[in-house]
Fold this sequence. Notes:
The protein is α/β, with parallel strands linked by helices. The protein has a single domain (13-142, 182-228), classed as 3-Layer(aba) Sandwich (Undecaprenyl pyrophosphate synthetase), CATH 3.40.1180. The chain has seven helices and six strands. Strand 3 (99-104), helix 4 (113-126) and strand 4 form a beta-alpha-beta unit. The structure holds 3-methylbut-3-enyl trihydrogen diphosphate (2 copies) and magnesium ion.
Amino acid sequence: MKVPNIDEAKLPTHVACVMDGNGRWATNRGLARIEGHAAGEEALLDTVNGALEIGLKWLTVYAFSTENWKRPVDEVRFLMKFNEGILTRHRDDLNEKGVRIRFSGKRDWRVPRRLIKHMDQSMDLTKNNSKLTLTIAFNYGGRGEIVDAVRELVNLGAKASDIDEKTISKHLYYPDAPDPDLMIRTSGEYRISNFLLWELAYSELYFTEVLWPDFRRQHLFEAVAEFQSRERRFGTVGGKKS
Ligand code: IPE
Ligand code: IPE
Ligand code: MG
């Protein structure tokens, strides 16, 4: 289906998204913060369906950071259960639509075993799909990912002279994923918050005031249209090649 203002020939290959503003959305309505997270489920599903609609190949969403453990224990507990629920409620539908689900982040002892089991089942169920790769960054931190890559290289016996940008890229959590072309952050916060630090080096950044629970595919399309109006230079002087 054609979407106005989007040139399907110039889609970003990979869009990354910081789903932020759930707590404020709830507080604005006199609700508990967790109600905001719950309302974010529809936003996520609509965004994924919008990504499928325009033919995006890669979508990565930030669901829980390594810093989010500092939140009240009840909120953290809710988020663990909630993410498990999202998987059980939607993985079959996403599977039928050709979505490959993956998780990026640390599997440390704090992540409940049941959630890990559902993550593994969802990844396994959808592993042969190729329409859209949906990567859920969960217990993810960008600095930690770089540290893990360097540790892996050291464990493999790499010499200092072996280590360059390519080798580090190859040891990130998902070396097959292209770097995001576009990073969207909702809720009017202008920061990265430890998301994909290495991979975002040359991404176009798009910030919107919309709070995550209000985000819908239309907002994704607006961000993609804005992306298409930008000139990416990658350090050159820009302009068209003659
Ligand atoms: C994003 O919404 C969801 C997570 C970090 C898990 P927040 O919960 O950060 O919402 P605000 O920023 O407090 O409004
Ligand atoms: C980033 O949002 C993490 C996720 C959306 C999962 P935060 O709300 O945790 O970020 P800060 O604390 O405002 O930087
Ligand atoms: Mg926040």
